[in-house]
């Protein structure tokens, strides 16, 4: 068994977490939450919970996670629950992903068991410069409009009243 330094182990865990979250986001999982569970269980360090809208989507999400984990260079994860599709567990060793339909997620409420230490999802992928500039322009467009002086507001109200009366 290979022993990793603490820094290498953290990087390894972050890379695995990012691969799992990417796999979930690629197939449009809803309400993805990541929890640090190292203090609760010696079996795994993170639990990821995500919602799927159908059995077909839970299976597709599990397959996507499995593929992303393999592409990232990790061992093939074990998958349980694909037959039923209401709750699929993808065991990636140090991280376990639970993909559940809404009713199952509400009933079992895994967040109450594992959720006392939420973890931020992996950082978004870097954007090309042109896209970043477009995002900045979009943010400017969403900025609140500058306040108009009271005289302009009053004039605008009078004009609107005249148009409504005409």
The helix-strand sequence is HEEHEEEHHEHH
- CATH architecture field of the domain at 29-117: 2-Layer Sandwich
CATH class of the domain at 29-117: Alpha Beta
The parts where pLDDT drops under 50 for at least 5 residues are: 123-148
CATH fold category name of the domain at 29-117: Beta Polymerase, domain 2
Classify the beta-strand content into a percent band: 15-25%
Global Rg: 24 Å
Number of strands: 6
- Report the total helices: 6
Give me a quick take on this structure:
The chain has 166 residues and is an alpha+beta fold. It has helices at residues 6-26, 55-71, 102-108, 110-114, 129-142, 150-165, and strands at 30-36, 46-51, 78-80, 87-91, 95-100, 118-119.
Name the descriptors.
single chain, 166 residues, alpha+beta, 6-stranded mixed β-sheet, globular
Write the layout of secondary structure elements.
Blueprint: H1 6-26, E1 30-36, E2 46-51, H2 55-71, E3 78-80, E4 87-91, E5 95-100, H3 102-108, H4 110-114, E6 118-119, H5 129-142, H6 150-165
Parallel strand pairs: 2-5
Antiparallel strand pairs: 1-2, 1-6, 3-4, 4-5
Helix pairs in contact: 1-2
